[in-house]
Automatic annotation (TrEMBL), chain A:
PANTHER family, sorted: PHOSPHATIDATE CYTIDYLYLTRANSFERASE (PTHR43535)
One of the record's GO molecular function terms: nucleotidyltransferase activity
Transmembrane stretches, start-end: 9-31, 51-77, 98-118, 124-142, 154-174, 186-204, 225-243, 249-272
The protein, known as: Phosphatidate cytidylyltransferase
Keyword line: Membrane, Nucleotidyltransferase, Transferase, Transmembrane, Transmembrane helix
Pfam family, one: CTP_transf_1
From TrEMBL, chain B:
Sequence ranges assigned to domain Phospholipid/glycerol acyltransferase in this UniProt record: 42-164
Protein name as annotated: 1-acyl-sn-glycerol-3-phosphate acyltransferase
Keywords: Acyltransferase, Transferase
GO molecular function: acyltransferase activity
Domain of life where this protein originates: Bacteria
Length: 314, 213
């Protein structure tokens, strides 16, 4: 398999040039606003850019290793995200055994299914088997206190951080005619569009944001940021159509679906954070907060992108 | 001061492996809110709800400090198998305390702990004596009082451990990854001249409770 074709090289050099430009701008801003005028927003911006470098390098390393590398990378991301999610959910002593199953049996199994490309089992394992097992195990533990809430929270954690996220590496199992062995580019397309859309919504929001969409939930998500971010990332998606099996307008529509789902994902995760009275899910990535803060949009976008591509292209 | 005991490569590796695993499971971050990590002689005392408590504090220390900070562990548990003995003596270089000796021979029981403080090194101890359910602090044992009476220059520092009981609760052998934190508070004011044992223990308990979120 020749993953290092010219297209992937071009895509990656594009990503890293953006990072170089961002680092230069961040450096200039930090120099201008150093000393007395130091500004927390700029410090945070630079921390974020540094973390982006690390995240991109880790992704490239995984791609270099091949399909196994990508599957393991996402299994680890799921692990950290689920850890953050469960930390926040008020679980009880009697959920302990069920949680052990989630982390050390169901999570690895889901990714094994991705790795061996057993589509049928992959798509039902969590919603059928895991979701029926969890209430059973918790019921056997014999603690009825808030039974439904506790079960629902753990199920939701498994759904978002394991099931949804596993659709990213699952893109590798799609058989698209004339695109054999190139699926990793589809995966990079999804990640680049979701993450750029996050960044662009943030940038447009900071620059022009006035009217919050859901003021109670997140004052930072504004109509201006939303429109600017969505439009520009759809444009970027269209410009990137050459890495995908899509033609330009399909690439645009796919990008629209990805960014809309990404926005919704961010919104839902913000609702959880607001309800728990916290700002970030964790502190694993400097400047970004937790793993879940970084991948919330990807979790919602991946299954939709996967199934659209699967339905129309295989 | 005598030379620090040499630590074998295997024990070092084992220590690194354990603290790596511990971080993977708990992502533990130590927040020094009341004091800075320095190599002064201190008694760190913490709430106890899990077998991992000592490991978490130990792994959260800067590596340079680790060789001079000794967890206090229960002899009846850690002296049982060769593997436990290896971990406790070579890896954590803990001091073992005889829990059953809460009778008249109390002074003797604290002797190994005093030896550490006499060398101006530090201790990690759990004054509750046994693991609780993670909800409330139970009654403090008096060892911490006797030690600070005999070594008034040693700082007594509260450390609050959060969520550890969710990682490995009492009565379970299964670990679940949950993000934990260790909050290091301000050293207690030194033992006052006429302060009674009960008053001091109460004060120490309150200082720890204040660190609870």
């Amino acid at each position: 398999m020749s993953i290092w074709d010219s297209e992937i090289a071009l895509l990656l050099s594009g990503v890293f040039s953006i990072l170089v430009v961002a680092s230069i701008i961040g450096g200039i801003l930090a120099y201008r606003y150093s000393g007395e005028k130091s500004n927390p927003t700029i410090d945070n911006l630079n921390a974020r850019i540094r973390a982006w470098w690390l995240m991109c390098i880790v992704c490239v390393l995984a791609v270099v290793i091949g399909n196994i590398g990508v599957v393991i990378l996402f299994a680890l991301i799921s692990f950290f995200a689920l850890r953050e999610f469960i930390t926040l959910a008020p679980t009880r002593r009697s959920d302990h055994e069920a949680l052990f199953w989630c982390f050390f049996i169901f999570l690895p199994l889901q990714y094994v299914l991705v790795g061996i490309q057993w589509y049928g089992m992959f798509s039902i394992f969590v919603p059928v088997f895991v979701f029926l097992f969890l209430p059973t195990r918790i019921a056997i533990a014999g603690d009825t206190y808030h039974f439904l809430e506790r079960t629902a929270k753990i199920q939701w954690g498994m759904l978002v951080t394991v099931f949804c996220l596993s659709h990213v590496p699952a893109l590798l199992m799609l058989d698209i005619k004339g695109y054999e062995g190139e699926n990793v580019k589809l995966l990079l397309f999804l990640i680049v569009v979701t993450q750029l859309s996050d960044v662009l919504q943030y940038v447009f929001g900071k620059l022009f944001g006035k009217r919050p969409i859901v003021p109670k939930l997140s004052p930072n998500k504004t109509i201006e940021g939303f429109l600017g971010g969505i439009l520009s990332s759809v444009l970027i998606g269209i410009c990137l159509y050459w890495v995908t099996p899509f033609n330009w307008w399909v690439a645009g529509l796919m990008s629209l679906a990805i960014t809309l789902m990404g926005f919704v994902g961010g919104l839902c995760m913000s609702a959880i954070k607001r309800d728990s009275g916290i700002k970030d899910f964790g502190a694993i990535i400097e400047g970004h907060g937790g793993m879940l803060d970084r991948i919330d949009s990807l979790c919602f976008a991946a299954p939709i992108f996967f199934h659209f591509t699967r339905y129309f292209y295989t | 001061m005598e030379k620090p005991q040499r630590i074998s490569l295997l024990a070092k590796g084992m220590g690194m492996l354990l603290s790596f695993t511990c971080r993977l499971l708990t992502g533990v971050r130590t927040r020094w809110v009341g004091c800075q990590p320095t190599i002064t002689s201190r008694i760190y005392y913490a709430n106890h709800s899990s077998h991992l408590d000592g490991l978490v504090i130990w792994a959260g220390l800067p590596p340079l400090m680790r060789h001079a900070v000794h967890p206090v562990a229960a002899k009846d548990y850690w002296d049982k198998t060769p593997f436990r003995r290896y971990l406790v003596n070579k890896v954590f270089r803990a001091v073992l305390i005889d829990r059953k000796g809460d009778g008249p021979a109390k002074e003797n029981v604290l002797e190994p702990l005093e030896a550490i403080l006499a060398k101006s090194e530090s201790l990690i101890l759990f004054p509750e004596g046994t693991r609780g359910d993670g909800e409330e602090l139970s009654h403090f044992k008096s060892g911490i009082y006797h030690l600070s009476k005999k070594y008034p220059n040693v700082e007594v520092v509260p450390v609050y451990l959060e969520n550890l009981n969710r990682v490995l609760p009492k009565g379970s052998k299964l670990v679940v990854p949950i993000i934990c934190s260790a909050v290091v508070g301000q050293p207690l004011a030194p033992l006052a001249e006429e302060e009674s044992k009960a008053e001091f223990l109460q004060r120490a308990k309150l200082a720890l409770e204040e660190l609870m979120p």
